Every structure is written in structure tokens, then in C-alpha cells.
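Entry 14. Two folds queued back to back today. First construct below, sequence then C-alpha cells.
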Amino acid sequence: MEFHPLANIFPMMIDEELNDLGDDMVAHGQREPIWSYESKILDGRNRYRAGLLKGIEPRIVEYLGIDPLGFVISMNLKRRHLDASQRAMVVAGIANLPKGSHPPIGGSSATQQVASKLLNVSVRSAQRARYVKDHGVPGLVHAVEQGDVKVAAAAEFTKAIPPQDQARLIDEYGSPASAVKAAVKAKADRASVWKPRPVPDPKAAADRAERRSQRHRERYMQLKRLLEACWALSQSGNPAQVARSMLLLEAREAKSIISRLREVATFANDVAIWMEGADTSAVLPQNPDAHHAEGDVTP
């Protein structure tokens, strides 16, 4: 028989606990019925599995009430001793239920606040549990649901470590609890050796500004010399004449010269395009005397 999605918001017993429950049912019978809803088990999954394990015919009663989710919460909290982290995971499970998949809890919508109040956990813990369910690997989620890892530690672990590394660390340390403990210790160790950021050296900052200013001056002079050389070349003859002169004197280097000319032309064109589109008020300093301290300008 299938389990109802509302039943699955609570964790199952581990195999050892199921075996003990089955032994008790063999000795004393099935004390509580298994409740069904919509032809699925709403409450009593562990009794059902333990009965199958020991060959006991299950006693099933149909739930006819109007608040199946509230019924599940009430029945589980009455007989199970879940810690705050486990209850927070239950709240997260309720939040993950598809909208409209269940009647309202106690006549009100199944908001995180309502569910948190019913299960006596803080909204903050419920939010952490939701994050663990959404971003944690199944082994970590299961460990929190079984009470082996606190939800706050699991949330920090999940936020700091991507899923593929979570699985690797759990495998490396042997269990989710050990992996989370190691991650918490590593974070504490890093915090213990933290050193305050040194105060910037004013002289070093001034030196950097001077180096930037020097680069500006060098670029300006190089571009000025390039423009002067290009102007002089254009005055010496037309492009065909210039090309003929180059071929007569450097025929063997023609391919290299052509490649370099095209690179220079492309670069010069890009500089011209950038200068045309630049906002000169944003590029030029307000104080004319401060232009040497200005940094590189990026488009």
C-alpha cells in the first residue's frame, strides 16, 4: 500500500527501530490502527512496515475527518520524541507540499508561520530546514531528519559547500555528522587566525597614482608620434606610391608589414571609436592640476 504524501513529511524509523517495533507487535499485537486517506496510508507507515516484516496482517482504518494534515501532525507529535531540528524539517516538508495538495491546517492556510507554531519551532529554524532540503544532498537531509545533525549546522554546511563537494566530504569523513563537524571546525580555525586588514600606505597609494599618470603620458606621446608619422607619410605620396616604396626596399618582409599595418589600423580605429563615444566630462578631472593622479579609464 502506498504512503500518502502528507505522511511522508515525518521521518521513518531506522531498520533497527522497525525490528523492535515488529517484535513488540508480535508480543502485544497492533495497539494502534493504521489510518488510510485517499486509499493511501496517512498514519502508521512504521506499523505497516513492521507488520509486514513480522508477517502480521495490518489493521487499517479509513480517516474520515476534514483536516488530514493536522491529524498527521497531532498523531506524530503525541507519540514521537522529535527534537527541534527534526520538527523544523517537518515544517520544511509541509512548505514543499504542492499548493492545493491538502486541505488547510486547522482551517487556515499551511503557511510556514502556521506550521512552525503547530510544531513549536521558530520560523528561522524552519527557513534553515527549507534551505537544507532544497540545497543539501539526500544523505545530509536524512541525517537531520533522523536527529544526527542539527539543522543550524547543516544549513551553514549547505551554504558553504556545493552539493558535489558535500557528497565527497560525507564519503571522506564517513558520515554527514562527521563531515559537518569537520566543516564547522575548519571555519572556526580560519576565524582564529584571522588578521585585520593592514591600513593602506599613503605613500604606496601616491606611487601607484604616479605610475598611472606616467602611463597616461607615455601613451599620449606614443599616439602623438604615431599621428605625426602618419601625417608625414600621407604628405609624401598617395597610398600606391607608399606601398611601391615599401615593396622596393622590403619586398621580403611584405607579408609581415601588411599584417602589422592591418593591426595598427584596427587598433587606431578602435581608439577613434572609443574617443568619439566617450563622455569627456567623466574622463577629465574637475581639478586640472589633479590629472596626473587619475587612474586608467575604461569604457
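Second construct, same run, same settings:
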Amino acid sequence: MNMKKPLINTLLIAGLAFSAPLWAKTDKPVLSDSQQAASDQAIARQQGKQNAMLEAINENVVAGFAKVQEAARLLTQEGKEKEAIAALEAATAKFDIALTAKPDLSLVPIDSRVAIAELITTPDLIADAADTAVDLLKDGKLQAARKLLLPLRDEMVTETVLLPMETYPEAIKLATAELIKGDKEKALSILDEAFNTFVVMRSVLPLSLLRAEAFIIEAAKLDKEKDKDKAIKLVEAAQQQLEVAVLLGYADEKSRAYKDLQDLAKDLRKEIDGPNAVEKLYFRLKQGLRKLIGEESRQKTVESGK
């Protein structure tokens, strides 16, 4: 369930609604048709996982918050205090049900957004853009540099709004009590302060790393003898995506994880062309990529409240 209420929308960063076109075009496609298909499928799978995050949400918490939103809207109208009180009491009832069923509820997800900015380009083009931007900055042409650098994003951004069940239900009870006493302004103030305790978790997943993983998975499916050239091209494409991740700032080329992955990719490239089995190298490379993806997309708290 994905709530699309005005209050929640104010918590989610407007920049999530982006869709970046290809930043730089080359004379020939950066990815082959099959590689592009593998990339698209990997991104779609990951987006599906992110969208499924709210499928296991606490329905009572979501229903309770919906009632609070209803009360907030009613309080913007004259003479709707009784209806607002009823809505807040209904919210409390929902929160009580949720807490009775699970007393240790803490931060509960109530909304989430996923936005994708896909950039298909080469390491050389990124490096050229960065050098040009530096020159522009030296010449004091900040806006020109900004225009050049802004599209350099290749990521899936997920932001999830979390309701703090340890404090929010009590705040709603306090607001209800003030409203019953006739202090509408105090009730609104409590609701506003409670809303400011919401937490937004932000996760940035580098698509270049996701692509590299997808290419290695596809290469591992191929017959070493019959599809040698295709497997080699997939491994080389994975290496290029690792370089893209570094140049875009999603990975550190000096890190042990990155160096190990590049070494494994080089070894795999040689083994595909040689007499030895490659299954273990594929496995190790996939494991390393999955670990790096996890490290680079850890969730971070970006803000609380409005």
C-alpha cells in the first residue's frame, strides 16, 4: 500500500521525481542489445524489490495515520472540531490495536518512493566531462559546470517515510485531549510537532554496480566453449561498469573491495579464453559485487519532519 497524501509528500524530496536521459551519445551504442536487456531486467527486478517493501506494512498504523490526516484537514475548517476529535480517537484505536499485537513497534514504514536516473555512457566520456567542468569552474562559469555535472547520475534512489510508534500515538492522545478542552491551536501545535518526528530513510543504489553484477550473471550462464566471445564481452562490459561507478563517485578505486573485483574480472577474462574451469571465479565475482552493492547502497537517515 502506497499512501499518496499531501503531508507525506512534503517529507519526500522533490528530486525523487527525476528521469535522466542518456547524458552522452557515442557513435555506437555503449551496450549491445543483449547487454541493455540484461541491464533493464536487473533494474526492473531491483525496483520491484524496493516497491515490495511496503507490502508487509502494518495496516493499522497506516489506517491510524490516515485518520490523523483526516483530522488535520478537518481542523482547517470552521466548526469541524467534533469530527476532528472523532477522527483522532479512531486513529488512537488503530494505533492501540497495532501496539497490542506488537508492543515493540518502533519505526514503521508508511510510504515509499523509488526514482531512477539511468546513465549509459563510457568512462572516457565521464572523465572528459569532469575535466571540462573543472576548467569551467576555474573560469568562474559555475552554472555551465553545474549543467554539465547534474546529469552525471546513474542510480536508484529510494526514500521511505517511517512513523515513530514509540512517541507518535501518545502525541495524538495529547492533541485529542487539547481539542476536547477547546484549545484548537494547542492541538494543531502538538500535531505539527508530532509530524516533525517522522524519519525519512534514503538509499542510493548505483546502477552501474547493478549492471556489472547482471553482466557477470549472464556470462556465467553461457557455455565457455560455444559462447566464449559473448562471455568475454560481458565480462569486459562488467569491468567498464565498475570503472563508471568509480568515476561517478559510487565506489572507491582505492578500496580493497574494488581492487579485488577488478582483479577477479581480469582473471576471469583470461580463464574464459584458457583451458581452466571458470565457475569458482564467476561465483567469487558475483559475491564480491553483491557485497559492494550492499556497502554502497546502505540506507541513511536524511531528515526528520518537514
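Quick look at the second one. The radius of gyration is 25 Å. The domain at 1-12+53-111+164-197 is CATH 1.20.120.1940 (Four Helix Bundle (Hemerythrin (Met), subunit A)).
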